[in-house]
Prior knowledge:
- The structure is a single chain.
- With 131 residues, the protein is an alpha+beta fold.
- The chain folds into two domains: 7-65, no CATH class; 74-131, no CATH class.
- Helices cover 27% and strands 25% of the residues.
- It is built from three helices and seven strands.
- The chain has helices spanning 26-38, 41-52, 56-65; strands spanning 7-12, 18-23, 85-86, 89-90, 92-98, 101-107, 121-123.
- The strands form three sheets. The protein has a three-stranded antiparallel beta sheet, with no helix packed on it. A two-stranded antiparallel sheet has the order 1-2.
Amino acid sequence: MSSESTFVMNVKTKAGTIITVRGDDYEALQSNVLSAISGGIDKTIQALEEVVIGSVDANVAYATTALGATPVAPVATAPSAPAPSCKHGTRKHKSGAGAKGPWQAWMCPSPKGTPDQCEPMWIRRGEPGWV
């Protein structure tokens, strides 16, 4: 018979590594999470990911030398159309990847958490402005 912990927390890093922290009760789980954070688990996981996955520069170097690939510049980093504005100023183009895939939006330039911060202007795939 296995002794599984009652409380389990799974966290997925940006590189896709899944970290599991367990505890027999909530206090033990919380203690284990805080211990992992203070113990520098982020640096440990980052180092492991670099060893296993490799850094972007190392992957490009390998593809270039070993596979004869030719690196190319990214297609675009921001739309060529002028940025829209809101009451706080010129919006900033942001992009990322979430659970539902890649996303892009024009974000309010006010600091995160500003009480009257404007809502993002989401850019849908296929719409003009999607990069």
